[in-house]
Here is the input.
Amino acid sequence: MEKTLKTAGEFALIEKIKKDFARLQTGQNVSVGIGDDCFCFKTGGQTLCVTKDMLIEDVHFKKEWISPQDLGKKAMEVNVSDIASMGNVKPEYVFIGLGAPADTPLKYVERFYEGIKSVCLKYSVLLSGGDTVKSDKIVISVTLIGKACGKIITRNGAKNGDLIGVTNTFGDAGAGVELLYKHGAKYKYLKEEKYLISKQNKPEARLLQARIISEFATSMTDASDGLFISVSLLAKGADLFCEKIPVSKELLKVAGGRQKSLEYALFGSEDYELVFTVPQKRAAKLKKLLPEISYIGCVNSSKKVRYFYDGKEQKTVYRGYKHF
Here is the structure.
């Protein structure tokens, strides 16, 4: 039986591409190759970081769920989040690819670009080009280029004994999109439910926090695919303490308790928080600078990520979203 994208899976496909193109990345100018949050290379005495992300109608969003302005903002913020995950990097230039049906109202597209512009102004990013094509559904492809202003932090620098840290709370965006799938956009949501939906539709990159964390971290990524995946990207072996995973009071109320909240935190996607590792001897100093971070585990040599709750190991398998 012939393999398909569904049977192979997204991450297996990425690994195959990395292997097939490995020899083409061995040039002296490549700082970080395929497989991290950004591709980084040296040119003209500086290091540039490049990332690309896509948002597809009816896969990542539905038009009735999100305003065109918020969609434009989100398209930008999720790319800035990739830039942030590399450490102290300043986003500089963005290229927007937009596919849309021919009968899309021009006003919708104009408002979409209003959202793009607002984030460009927020981070002093220059819209530098792109492409617009006809498509059956809305397809947004963003390429963002940033300039390193300090040490690049990759996914593969964690050391045994490092603490695993995170910014802010987890699970809100995943719960928010589940509410939209369940009730739609016109439902009369509670205040706490509206908060969760806003975390899905209006993510914010942790660029400022990343610059501070970069002075301490040994590895880092952003949690676009959920905390479970993020930890596995940084550490082959680790102990994670679920009672230490930060969740919002809004999620606790809507989910009906901590157990369900932790499922959203581990397997829900699109939180765009930072997940990083830091040497234990430097952890307290970083926490003092950024009180909003939490330490939720420790890297070890076990070659397995183990999950504990109140001292008892939990059987945990991935139950999140898969593209294929």
Observations:
- The longest strand covers residues 87-100.
- The chain has eleven helices and 13 strands.
- The chain has a mean pLDDT of 93.
